[in-house]
Amino acid sequence: MNWLRRWNARSLASQFFIAGGLISIAAMFVVGLFVSHLIEETVIHNSGAATALYVDSVIAPLLPDMQTESLLDEASAQALDETLGQGALGKRLVSFKLWRSDGTILYSNEKELVGKTFAVSDKLQRAFAGSLVARYEIASDPESDRERALGKPLMEIYNPVLQPWSGQAVAVLEFYESAEGLGDSLARARLRSWGAVAALTATFFLVLSVLVFRGSRTIEAQRKDLKERVTELSALLAENRGLQRRLQRASQRAAALNETYLRSIGADLHDGPAQHIAYASLRLDSDVLINASTQPEAREKELAWIRSSLAEAMTEIRNICRGLVLPHIEKSSITEIVTRVVEAHQHKTETPVETVIDEDGPELPPAVKICIYRFVQEALNNAYRHGGGVQQAVRAVSHKGHVRVEVSDHGDGFDPTEVRPTSLGLVGLRERVDSLGGSFDIKTGEGGTTVTMIFEPMEVGE
Length: 462
Known about the structure:
By secondary structure, this protein is of the alpha+beta class.
């Protein structure tokens, strides 16, 4: 199929020139053969008709009657011999035969052929049917040994002898004429016919080629113009994509500054103070406080944890009221943010958290940093509360603006369909991530739960 690809790669004008040229040459060859053959037949037939008319006018009066059914008598044969051997007719005729319809030769200037019968050829049948038959070729009939021995083309003519009252052919005159110069005439006729056909074909092809090449230039110009327009449109599309990115970044900044107020306040209250209060509530239900036999030192230590959680909750409530932004997070790196959340979680729950951090990206917007902080905090709390804190792990990667944070555990998992739309936990995290143009994903089952958030470079930062 390589030739097809190379063919399609050519211009329309080139394709037309090649295909049209081949078709024109083939058409010229076919038409030339037809015309030259037609001209040859016409020239030979007209020449034969003229000679036959002349011979007929000279020979017919010498025949004894129009019913030539038997061999000619001596007087008629001698008259024909004298006539055919003298003058201009004697110089032109090579041989002469008078045929009967059954293939018998009634007379011939070759005396050994007289009275012999040969198979009736197609030419002889056509002549007895009333048609003049003329051929210019080397003799090939069985009775033409003498003519064939000359080794050159002769004019072979079959002329029917017709009864004047009925028009029926009663005999056929066959004679061979030397026809000197006829071959040259035929060659000139062929050359002229081929020249005329070639000139006509070339003119037709050249006119079409001019039209096609003009059309091809127009198409190429339009194609070039279209390509330039496509390039311009591509540039406009690229500029449009840049504007879309700028608009998306503006939307991210607006989301970071605004955070849809009421919903953000509810999410921050749930993710921050509510977690500390919940932890304090869990501690109030511990056996250390309920059991009266607990040592005072243990009870005091537990109460100190509760007071610390409540104090931290109050601190975060004040921070939320001051502007919903954690000041110590705005200028922190992802490593510092994740480490701070993990250490706080381990301190509160006394459970280990495997931490893997890979950070080499640019500075991230404050809104994204807050989202990472809240994401890790809420995901770890859920891992401890619902998964028992089994094999908790945090993996954070920030590379060239691509941010991926994953929190997992090996607990019993949960049914995601049971999470209520009004829940401020996972639903709040999803909405927070979605509002900043990121993606949020949860995978849970018997092997544990994995919560993932991703920000792509195009959608993060300036």
